């Protein structure tokens, strides 16, 4: 982004001069000089909680945007292809991943679920993930109806499409990969994952 464009964005209010920001357009983190001074930063000690947190937070936007931007959505091989706007959906994507991790931890901590598991061919972990995914099941009258709905959703909704919410959330959660023995490098067990908690 050239200096003029940067000044224009700041004047328009799309860049806050007092806050660090990740630019989806330029794929760069903007850190104002004010954040490189006390109390946020001091040159005599490594400040991972001040400036370190700010940078990690802004880079977190980039990571989730790039992961979700790679998800193609829609039926068949439509023209043009539809891809999730990871920048637009990033806050909801992060909330989905955190929500699943917290819910799983609570599920595993509370109760042994023996009665339910003994009458089923799935483990309690597998049943948890099946229940999560089932909430997002959708059916359409035709591929045309599905495509129209997805195109409309991509313009107005800050949530990724349902199938992407399931795939993106589960693919970033190690416990899912373990529960279903997903091979490393597969769609549901990529080598690089973005998680928030050590479960």
UniProtKB/TrEMBL annotation:
Transmembrane segments: none annotated. Residues 20-64, 83-194 form the Peptidase M13 C-terminal domain. One of its GO terms (cellular component) is plasma membrane. PROSITE patterns: NEPRILYSIN. GO terms for biological process: protein processing. Signal peptide: none annotated. One of its GO terms (molecular function) is metalloendopeptidase activity. InterPro entries: MetalloPept_cat_dom_sf, Peptidase_M13, Peptidase_M13_C. Belongs to the peptidase M13 family. This is Endothelin-converting enzyme 1. It comes from Folsomia candida (Springtail).
């Amino acid at each position: 982004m050239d200096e003029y464009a940067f000044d224009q964005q700041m004047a328009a209010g799309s860049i806050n001069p007092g806050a660090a920001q990740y630019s989806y357009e330029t794929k760069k983190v903007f850190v104002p000089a004010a954040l490189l001074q006390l109390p946020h930063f001091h040159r005599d000690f490594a400040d991972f909680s001040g400036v370190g947190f700010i940078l990690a937070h802004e880079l977190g936007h980039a990571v989730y945007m790039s992961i979700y931007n790679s998800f193609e959505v829609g039926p068949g091989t439509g023209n043009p292809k539809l891809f999730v706007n990871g920048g637009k959906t990033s806050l909801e994507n992060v909330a989905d991943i955190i929500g699943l991790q917290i819910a799983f931890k609570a599920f595993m901590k509370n109760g042994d679920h023996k009665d339910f598991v003994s009458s089923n061919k799935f483990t309690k972990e597998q049943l948890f993930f099946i229940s999560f995914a089932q909430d997002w099941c959708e059916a359409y009258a035709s591929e045309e109806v599905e495509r129209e709905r997805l195109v409309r959703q991509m313009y107005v909704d800050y949530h990724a499409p349902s199938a992407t919410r399931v795939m993106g959330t589960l693919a970033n959660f190690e416990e899912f990969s373990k529960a279903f023995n997903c091979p490393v490098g597969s769609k549901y067990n990529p080598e690089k994952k973005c998680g928030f908690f050590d479960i």
